[in-house]
Amino acid sequence: MPPRKKAAVATPASMVSEETMRKGKQVVQSLEGVAREVYDKIVATQVPSINLPTRTKGNIVFSEKHQVWTYGTLVTSRTAKTLEGSYMLARTMFSVDFIKQMIAETKSSTLREMYYISEGWGLAKFHAQDESDKLIEDLEIVSKQMREDLRLRPEENGASIIGNITIEEMNRKGERKRINCRDDVGDGGYGIPYNVEKEKIKFIDHDAKFIIAIECGGMFDRLAENGFDENEDAILVHLKGQPARCTRRLIRRMNAELKLPVVVFTDGDPWSFRIFASVAYGAIKTAHISELLATPEAQFVGITPSDIENYKLPSDKLNDQDVKALKAELTDPRFKGQALARKADGNEIMWEDEIKLQLEMNKKSEQQALAKYGLNFVTENYLPEKLSEMGIL
Predict the structure, then answer these.
(1) Section 72-94 average pLDDT
(2) How far apart are CA 393 and CA 390, in angstroms?
(3) Which one is catalytic: 39, 116, 281, 311?
(4) What whole-number distance in Å separates Cα of residue 225 and Cα of residue 219?
(5) Is 280 within 8 Å of 245 (Cβ atoms)?
(6) pLDDT of residue 221
(7) What ranges make up the beta strands (E) of 12-159?
(8) Between these two residues, 207 and 80, which has the higher pLDDT value?
């Protein structure tokens, strides 16, 4: 038997910052605007609909203003002309109401909870989480609000950072606490929360010269254990594979607000190249907020096909999926005609050249293959050499 319902308890106003309250009101106004547009069409006896940009590679264009890849002019319509379209609009209205309720109660929910909440929406309930995730992405676009401001978060948080940077974070009680991401954290570093906007996290002080974003946990731990952050005045950011939105947003903020160069250190395979692309150029799925998540100035310092040859690294053969992915990247606007890295002498290393070389070599390699030369090689030789060539060190 289902549990007896209790009245929702809102967080006391004294524990909510003015910034949070102001942002909440702004989000509610945006959501009400979306609902009003649908309502007005119904009142006018028109078929209600919502127009959205087409989210495919074919609708990705380069924004000269923000220097990132974003959606073009192709549009897809969510309309009530079909039964499924009517259900989707109903789900949208239920979602708007749910988000408004969370804002009023200063609560948040995971995307998974959002999916299960819909069980109480009758015929409008979601049939799979993919449906609810996609709808929230749609709602982000039409309301012009980030998912984090809609109080929705993924199951997992971002990864972690280590370095001599002091931040001020607002805790659950509405109190601001100062944390040094080197001296006040354990071996795992400072855990990045799902919301890293200014009302949640402020940068107080730092002595860093650059940010190095690292794909895997093993290499993140290696750099930390070897004291790379202290020796080279760096901020280490663990990407945890394909980076979460909050991780990319925090990198973007540190780059833009602290004027710190960003380099991305990954494996030497097509999937890792796409990790770099999501940090530097933006991802197709989140192209509507690329200017907030992407860091166009980021450079690749990971394992290149040239490195596999030059450093004689242990490698594996490319499989069929690797080859297919590399060929797709040759036509991907985020790689085609783009510089992988810029050397201090002004010369550029181009993505197309390296991808073609990898297809010719038929090899891939992991960043931890550098351990062939010992545990200190990556921090004493490989990274200093490449970062010096790029003018970072």
Answers:
(1) 86
(2) 8
(3) 116
(4) 10
(5) no
(6) 94
(7) 49-53, 60-63, 68-71, 75-79, 109-110, 152-153
(8) 207
**Digit-coded pLDDT (tens) for 111-121:** 899 899 999 89
Regarding pTM above 0.85, the answer is no
Using the predicted structure, report yes or no on whether residue 108 has a pLDDT greater than 60. Answer: yes
- DSSP letter at 185 equals S
The conformation of residue 148, written as its DSSP 8-state character, comes to G
Is 116 noted as a catalytic residue in this protein?
yes
Number of domains making up the chain: 2
Lowest mean pLDDT among 11-25, 127-141, 234-248: 11-25
The residues, any chain, with a CB within 8 Å of residue 262's CB and separated by 6 or more, are 210, 211, 212, 213, 251, 254, 255, 279, 295, 297, 298, 299
Containing structural domain, residue 107: 13-50+76-153
For residue 319, give the H/E element and its range. Answer: none
**Residues 88-100: pLDDT tens digits?**
889 999 999 999 9
Q: What is the CATH number of the domain that holds 222?
A: 3.40.1360.10
- Domain holding 146: CATH number? 1.10.10.10
Residues 302 and 271: beta-carbon distance below 8 Å: no
Q: Are residues 225 and 299 in the same domain?
A: yes
